[in-house]
Amino acid sequence: MISQRVKRISPSATLAISSKAKEMRRQGIDVIDFGVGEPDFDTPDHIKDGGIKAIEEGFTKYTPAAGIPELREAICRKLKVDNGLQYTPDQILVSVGAKHSLYNAVQTLCEDGDEVIIPAPYWVTYPEQVKLAGGVPVIVETDPEEGFRLDPDRLAKAVTPRTRLLILNSPQNPSGAVYPAEDLKAIAEIVVENGLYVLSDEVYEKLVYDGEKHTSIAALGEEIKRRTVVINGVSKTYAMTGWRIGYAAAEVEIIKAMAKLQEHLTGNPASIAQKAAVEALEGSQKPVAEMITQFAQRRDYMVERLSSLAGFVCPCPKGAFYAFPNISQWHGKTIQGRRIGDGTDLAAVILEEAHVAVVPGTGFGFPDCIRFSYATSMENIKEGLDRIERLLSGASW
Ligand SMILES: *Cc1c(COP(=O)(O)O)cnc(C)c1O
Predict the structure, then answer these.
(1) Which of 44, 156, 282, 374 is deepest in the core (most CB within 10 A)?
(2) How far is the CA of 83 from the centre of ligand 1 (A)?
(3) Could you tell me the residue ranges of all domains in the chain?
(4) Which of 103, 122, 170, 235 to mutate to test the pocket of ligand 1 (most atoms within 8 A of CB)?
């Protein structure tokens, strides 16, 4: 009775781990969670106040499906100031989270049988959204030694006459890769030459460290801008994951088509959340800076501890809030009598024996790695890593 279309998609690997961890917690087990994909900070007060005010003023009805003009204007200002991108409000679509903007974009740009290039590791949702649109995900591996960034030569080789789209994500989840402008330039040339389109997922743009700078591929020239759908949102930057506000910026024709689709799917995103998002974009950015400082400290600590573990190779992530160590040296080793194959086995042992939840790389298309989120307190990070260290020190190596 279930359609083939829905049968074809896989459940979210990140959600699978968190439900297992929740089940253990219900049984009274104290689980440290490194599986989280959202900031542990509270939404800043002035943003909450924006939502409260909207409720009190009765701003609780349908809005234009593509978002209120005030928010679309605020997004235009943000894109201009932060990214050097010139858009008008009719080039902006506000959706129910960046995930929803991505979905609208893939549905709008992808024909049945079109190939969509996705660099691995990738965010778990991309291939599934492509499959839902009737497209064919074409996975192109990246090299950990090259900072998990897509090599333009490999990209060029993957392009066929059926290629339609490239999905780029920088800063990247799960690897923390941040693409410098030179890389993006080389990629943009291939995109333009072959008449492709780019979905540029920039939701982690503010979370960069070591003086790294985020560049939007759309900012590299008029031609590539016309071929790019910029995807962003307030979830990660402002600790607003539950408010569900994301957005897309692109050519008017593309945005109009995406908005038409959204009108029939969800209509407008929550009116209250839209008002809060205006506050987020236009209000004080100080809470963002404080959050970045804390993430940077946690990253340094976590990467140092992970690198000191036997059989862990942990490149230093430049952005987002994840470490993504390679654990392939554990292949064939035994921990507490259990033989380890890939990251899925090691993640299972770490959860069951050390009571620390981590996400195996399989769901991200990189089975030799494991994702550790540092979107949790320093105290939890210390305790979780202590537990893992104790577990691994008892292994036969
Ligand atoms: C969290 C995340 C999103 C989705 O964010 P929402 O705006 O909450 O839907 C999109 N892309 C990546 C890579 C993410 O990690």
Answers:
(1) 374
(2) 19
(3) 4-42+287-393, 47-282
(4) 235
Instruction: Please report the sign of the dihedral spanned by the C-alpha atoms of residue 224, residue 225, residue 226, residue 231.
Output: positive
Note the pLDDT tens digit of each residue in 263-322.
999 999 999 999 999 999 999 999 999 999 999 999 999 999 999 999 999 999 999 999
> What is the Å distance from ligand 1's center to 1 Cα?
31
Rounded to two decimals, what is the model's pTM?
0.96
Helix%, strand%, coil% for the chain, nearest 5: 45, 15, 40
Does residue 14 have a pLDDT over 80? Answer: no
Taking 80 as the threshold, does the pLDDT of residue 12 lie above it? no
Domain 4-42+287-393 has CATH 1.10.10.10: no
Q: For residue 231, give every residue at least 6 positions away whose Cβ sits within 8 Å of its Cβ, in sequence order, or none.
A: 98, 101, 102, 105, 199, 200, 201, 202, 203, 246, 247, 248
How far, in Å, CA of 395 to CA of 32, rounded? 21
Q: What is the pLDDT of residue 11?
A: 79
Is the CB of 269 within 6 Å of ligand 1?
no
**Region 28-56 average pLDDT:** 96
Out of 15, 99, 232, 266, mutate this one to test ligand 1's pocket (max ligand atoms within 8 Å of CB): namely 99
Q: Give the number of the atom of ligand 1 that is nearest the alpha carbon of residue 201.
A: 11
Q: Taking residues 88-113, what's their average pLDDT? A: 98
Pocket flag, ligand 1, residue 202 (CB < 6 Å) = no
CA distances for 333 relative to 13, 17, 309, 311, angstroms: 24, 23, 14, 10
Relative to the CA of 172, which ligand 1 atom is closest?
13
Q: Over the stretch 174-200, which tens digit does the pLDDT of each residue have?
A: 999 999 999 999 999 999 999 999 999
Q: What is the CATH number of domain 47-282?
A: 3.40.640.10
Closest residue by CA, ligand 1 atom 15? 173
Residue 16 reports pLDDT greater than 80: no
